[in-house]
Amino acid sequence: xxxxxxxxxxxxxxxxxFDASSSSCVPERTITKYQWYFGDEKEAETGWNMVNSxxxxxxxxxxxxxDDLIINPGYEPGKKVSHTYSCAGNYVVRLTVTDNxxxxxxxxxxxxxxxxxxxxxxxxxxxxxxxxxxNGTIKPNRTIEVQTLYTYPCTGTGGHTDYARIWNxxxxxxxxxxxxxxxxxxxxxEDSFTLVKTETYYYTIRxxxxxxxxxxxxxxxxxxxxxxSEFVDANGKRYSNWIPAIRLVSDFR
Length: 253
What we know:
- By secondary structure, the protein is mainly β.
- The protein has no helices and 22 strands.
């Protein structure tokens, strides 16, 4: 028995994909059963942890009880499954495979599930300030769940973000300002998303009024790094060292 899982450093509530395609048995036999124990629901008799109701997610999202096996062309039932963990911690994942002669084999692998960080915060900026369009990169040093972008305004002004886009090869999200009402210093993305530890993301942030600015091309924060590749101000002047003073959070705070 053998399996892989992805991502290898998951966080709470992130979908983890388990793949037992590398499992094999002796020649002229076939694997007929995959039993997954994910480590987060204790089974009373053995101390191991069982998949809820013995449900196995097959390719193309087909889900069936182990006693009602569905043959999905190209995939064996239970070979590929997904699971999420609601609590951070260390887990032991066990896979037992059974072949068509009743022989079994078991493998154990250890997994650490990390908590989701709530904030990526540049901190407040300084003068001079002017609105415009910022472009650069964000590289978190921890995994961060994001729903909202807060913009630090200059005192007594309506500094805010009009439009924000964050993207890379696997993510592309945007948010738009809705005007001077409610908590107008914030813009919210339609759905929450995850910035994964050590991955690089590009951003475009278009500001209005007088937002605070960090006058550097590369800033280290407690949660990672943010850079400025270009800032074009309202007068068309270009800079390479104006980073927007922002906070990415999982909700309004």
